[in-house]
Amino acid sequence: MRLTKSVLILCAISALAFQAPVSGQNDTTGTKSRLTIGGYGEAVYSRHFYSDDVHRYMYPANYKDAADHGRVDLPHAVIMLGYDFGHGWSIGTEIEFEHGGTEVATEMEAEEAGEFEQEVERGGEVALEQFWVQKSFSKTLNIRAGHIVVPVGMTNNSHTPNQFFSVYRPEGENTIMPCTWHETGVSVWGKSGAWRYEAQVLPALNAYFFNNAGWIHNGSASPYEFRPASSLACAARVDWSGVPGLRLSLSGYIGNSFNNDIKTDNYGETSKYHDVKGTVLIGAFDFAYKSHWLIVRGNVDYGHLNDAVLISQHNMNQTTMTGNPYPHTAVGESAWDAAIEAGINALAWSKTKQKLFIFGRYDHYDSFVPGGVMTDIGWCERQVVSGGLNYSPIPEVTLKAEGGIRLFDSQYNNEPFFALGITWTGFFKNGN
Questions:
Q1: Radius of gyration over alpha carbons of the chain, in Å?
Q2: How does pLDDT run across 164-223, given as a tens digit for each residue?
Q3: Is the CB of residue 224 less than 8 Å from the CB of residue 262?
Q4: Closest by Cα among 260, 244, 138, 130 to 194
Q5: Helix ranges (DSSP H) in 31-123
Q6: DSSP β-bridge partners for residue 185
Q7: CA 245 to chain centre
C-alpha cells in the first residue's frame, strides 16, 4: 500500500528515535527534561566516472571507456525519540528511512482493459533501528533490552553524518559488516572515569546470507517477519577518553552463524556439514582525536569465519531451492579494513563559529580473503583515496563535497567519483 501522509506522521510519532537521557539528567535551563527528540538526514548528488554494469569486473576490458553516470539519493532520514520515566527507567526508539523509503501502489491500468496492477514506485527501506527499555542503576551500571545498535567498529558506534567527513558512510566498514548493525538483544553498559564499557547478547548472524562482495554484511538481515535466533552471539566494546579530545576504542564479536535460519537441517554424522559451526570472530580498533582546528579518525578491523570453504559450498548449492533469498556465492575465510581520515578547520583562527574542514581520507579493505581451496577474487580488494570539504554554517548543518577514486589491481578499471551532500544532525529537548 502507498504510505499516506497521516501514516507517516503516526510512524514518526510512535517510532521516533534515539536514546533517552539517563534518569535525572537536566537540560540547559537546569530543569529536568524527560523528553529527547532528534534525528539526522542526508541528501546526495554523485557522479561516477565508470560503468555500473554488473559484469564490469568479470569483463573489465569491455567497460574501459564506459560513459559516466549520475545519481541522486537520500541515504538516511532518521527520526529519534527518547523518554525518561523516572526511577531509572527510560526508553529509546529510532526509525530510519533509507534511500527515500519504499513506495508500492496498486493502480488500474487503462491501457490493459482496466486491470489492477501493483507497482514499485520507489526502492529503499524503512527500518526500526532502535526500540529499547533501559533501567539505570548508576552511571556504572545500566541494563538495556530491546532493539539495539551493535557498537562493533567505528562506523556502527558513530554513524551520524557529522561523525565522518565523507559524503557516504566510510566504505570499508560499510562493506564488510552490517552498518548500521542493529539487533534485538540485551546490553549492559556503564561509565567510570575515562572508561566506558558495553557488553551485549544478541542473535547470531546467518551464514546463508554471507557473500563475496560484502562478507558478513547481509548476515543480520531477515526476509521474514521475525529474526531467526537458534544461535546467540556476544558483542563488546570498551572506550577510553583519558586525554582531552582523544578516544581509543576496542570492540569485538563472536557467534556461530551456520544453520541459523528459518530452514534448519539435521546433518547426520556422515554429512560433511555435521560439525560446521560457522563461527564469526571480529576484532576492531578505532580512535578519534578532536581539537579546535584538527580532527583525525581511523580504524582497523579484522574478521574471521570458521568453515568458510564448506559454508561457501553449501550456499552455492542452494540454487536448487526455488524462490530462496540467498545470494548463492562463496564467502571469504576472512575480511579486513584499515582507514584513516584527517581534516583541518580553515576557519579555526577566525572569530566566526562556522567551520570549514579541508579533509583527506584513505580506506583499504578486502571483503574476500580466501581459505583452503578457494580462488582469490581480485576486485574484492580495494583502496579508496578521496578528499574534499565539510562546511558547517551552523553546528547542526554540514555541506559536503568529496572527490576520489577507487583503486583496483591492474586488470580492473579504477573508479573515479565525485559527490555533493547536505546533512543535518540535531537533538532537541522540550522546554528549551
A1: 23
A2: 999 999 999 999 999 999 999 999 999 999 999 999 999 999 999 999 999 999 999 888
A3: yes
A4: 244
A5: none
A6: 146
A7: 25
